[in-house]
Amino acid sequence: MDASAATYVDALARLSLFADLTHPQLEALAHSFGEEVFAEGQRVIRQDVTGGGFYVILDGEAKIVIDGQERARLRRGDFFGEISILTDEAPTADVIATSLLRCLIIADNELKAFLLRQPSVMWRMLQIEARRLRAANVWNG
Amino acid sequence: MERVEPRPFPPGDYDVVVVGSGPGGLQAAYSLARTGIPRVAVISRDPAPGGMFRRFPVFQRLISWTKPDAPFERGTREYEWYDHNSLVGDEREHQALTPEFMDRTFDVPARSEMEAALVEFAARGGVRVRYGCEWLSTRRDEAGFVLGTSDGEYRCRIGVFAIGVTEPWFAPIPGLEAAPHYVATNAPDRYQGKSVFIVGKRNSGFELAQGLLPWARRIVLGSPRPVDTATLAFSPLSIRYLSPYTEHVRGGTGSHVVDAAIERVERHADGYRIHARGTTWEGELALDADEVIAATGFRAPVRDLPNLGVALVNDNRMPALSPYWESVSVPGIYFAGNLMQASPGLRKHGATSSSSSVVGFRYNTRLLAQHIAEKHFGLERERPSLDGDEVIPHLLAELAHAPELWTQKGYLARVVGVDGTDGIRDQGIVPLADFVDRDGVDACAVAVEYDVDGTVVPVVYVRRGGRLVETSLPPHPMHSFGTDEHRRQLAACVAPLLSRRASRV
User: Fold this and answer.
1) CA–CA separation, B504 vs B191, rounded Å?
2) How many domains does chain A have?
3) pLDDT value at position A5?
4) Contact B331/A89 with Cβ under 8 angstroms?
5) Which value does ipTM take for this structure?
6) What is Dmax (Cα atoms) for chain B?
7) Could you tell me what percent of chain B has a pLDDT over 90?
8) Is residue A121 part of a domain?
9) What pLDDT band is residue B321 in, cutting at 50, 70 and 90?
10) Which residues of B touch A34 (CB under 8 A)?
11) Measured between CA atoms, how close is A45 to chain B, in angstroms?
12) A105: contact with B, CB 8 A cutoff
């Protein structure tokens, strides 16, 4: 068996977001939602362009850019794109790969059904969103 | 006596080397030959044109339509939308060749008809290929790349690999390698009266199940992902492969479709035992079957390209590609043909391109040839000048009938650029992702897309002063996007571009 053939499921299994999923659930996730690899400098989601998806970084790094200004860095295990799906508005930032970047993608119109099927992932997402909100409040102080 | 043509393209130095003589290789060879790049070589390990269509599909019938008669004349650009299987030529006699070979038994061609049309395209289009020359290895040198082949070494600046997604791929399931792959199941009568388990629920799985329905005693298809009926109903698959699924849903006459992770496959003296665990239901299954077939798909035969640094995607089954179908990690290595599906575009609302089939990649490949000529050889393509009052009618006509926009929804776009000094120019068809991400002159692009509900809508993108504005125009029950309302709304979107130019003049 080709050892590298199992890497996609393995990569998903390593992420805390999916830590509560059973192996069959991880396999279903891997079969249902594709991965995409971006070149360094390539845009992943685009400010003001509708229809973007929910992305989870499997490998590599990216930056969040608003109106040309870098705001934050993203690395393995981080996710993005969910806010514009939840609010049904175009993204307010670009996300740009700063290295070769490998992501899992869930399309905007599939995210809700996925999260309702896997409430443990939704709970972990909420925990992370809560931490982001707290950090933002501290910054805004 | 017939004169024997010497084999073209002996080993040596070239600008571009194309590998492959399936539809992707033939389209690339045809289109590159018309760019003006001086030295383009085309090599193929096959003895003749046709690629996968020399053997597949297993059951000898395609799933993509060609309408021999349509609202537009064969050979016109508009007709291409009704003929998803012909390659695209620059002259009438190279156009719309597939319907010439169809016997009209179905609205989708037989494998042999498809192959005949590809052979004819190569002959009429003067596509020269060095057949029987197998690409074996790849390395870099100071000028670009060196391709080792069965005939010797080819040096080139640019490599175009139209190698298909043709290598059988087995999902990493213990024991599955004991079962034959889809490619080895060419005689359905072998399965008469047998119980068959098919691993996989995508094209090849359903194609097999459909082909075995008249023969097998029981058919079970199993894989982790549930069948997405909404998608399947509107996919090309539905034309021929929906029956096994329908049988399952209706309580079946021996066909079952199971959502389960296959944990292992055991070979026994008189058959197989499959151990599976539910993905959309809780529990385990142990199923006995006389035969197991791995319909788990294919991978690209990329040989040693990963050693060169070519990054792979989709469980290492395909190279990861940029919007212009270049390796994301090795500049100068391009892919044509159905591997272009590995460049997914904007994926708006999860939409996939048609780049995995001829109808989509024929256009991509033509653009790729122009892109290589411009980027690497400075051979600018023609960009016709437009008057201000021609822009709206031109864009509306493209939205109505451009086969590139209709077959590659949300993926290819028509672009008109507005430059203060150079005037208004038709920039041609481009990948939408490239237009959206490129900082360039003020311009607008139109595309045909699916909205979030799956309705087909025209979409306008206007880039002005580096800022992009996206506007969806209304849908239409007959997909007629040339109404007065469309004209008015499109004009309103584009007006700032045209007026700014006017104010400069």
Assistant:
1) 74
2) 1
3) 41
4) no
5) 0.90
6) 84
7) 77
8) yes
9) very high
10) 314, 344
11) 9
12) yes
Which amino acid does the sequence have at B98?
Answer: T
Of B114 and A5, the structure prediction assigns the larger pLDDT to B114
Residue A84, domain extent: 3-132
Q: In chain B, which residues touch A (CB < 8 A)?
A: 169, 171-172, 174, 177, 223-226, 259-261, 277-280, 311-316, 320, 322, 328-329, 344, 346-351, 410, 436-437, 452, 468-470
Contact yes or no for B469 and A48 at CB 8 A: yes
CA end-to-end span of chain B: 67
Q: Write down the residue that tokens 């087909």 correspond to.
A: B456
Question: Which CATH number fits the domain that encloses residue A37?
Answer: 2.60.120.10
Residue A139 placed within a domain: no
Q: What structural domains does chain B harbor?
A: 12-166+300-376 (3.50.50.60), 176-296 (3.50.50.60), 384-504 (no CATH)
Please tell me which residue of chain A has the smallest CA distance to B319.
Answer: A37
- What are the phi and psi torsion angles at B138 (to 5°)? -145, 140
| Nearest chain A residue (CA) to B347 | A52
pTM: 0.92
Model pLDDT, residue B238: 67
Rounded to the nearest integer, the mean pLDDT of chain B is: 92
> Nearest Cα to A90, choosing from B436, B464, B486?
B436
Q: What is the mean pLDDT of residues A116-130?
A: 95
B432 or B63, greater pLDDT: B432
Compute the mean pLDDT over every residue in chain A, rounded to the nearest whole number.
Answer: 90
Within-domain flag for A49: yes
Rounded (5°) CA angle B85-B328-B334: 45
Say yes or no for a CB contact (<8 Å) between B437 and A46: yes
Asked whether residue A141 carries a pLDDT value surpassing 60, the answer given is no
